[in-house]
Amino acid sequence: LFKYTAANPSHTTGRVGRRSENIGKPGRPTKEQKAYTPVGWISVPGLPKCDGALKLAGDGMEPILRGGDIVLYSRLGSVAEIFWGEMYLLSVDTPMGDYIAVRYLHRSEKPGLAVLTGENSGFRDTEIELSKIRAIAFVKATVRMNSSK
């Protein structure tokens, strides 16, 4: 678990590719989310307030983001707050279960749908229903550690 320190710090836990409760539902964090104990701290001078930080797993955003990078994010209150074309951490309800990823979010030509786009050309764009988004957070910054020691 990482804790981002800013004017009004808060925290969360987990890794992208795992459980959606780590991101939080749109809106305020739950009591369970507030109860997590931070295992680390990140302080980035000049960065606006963030709600949490997660360590990434997977390669859908390579070469911009890699597994092991840390994303600092702010939760959105609803999908109405989306800035189309920006990078988001999101959890989407699918027939196969939760799909959790960091992707660019683009408006679809079809009403009520959005398109998730990654940097890695090995991944296809994915069209999703906005109503299936369980949790969404705007990626404000990323941290890359070039050494694990």
TrEMBL record:
Q: Where is this region: Disordered?
A: 1-33
Q: Which Pfam families match?
A: Peptidase_S24 (PF00717)
- Boundaries of each Peptidase S24/S26A/S26B/S26C domain copy? 25-137
Its protein name is Putative peptidase S24/LexA repressor family protein
Organism whose genome encodes this protein: termite gut metagenome
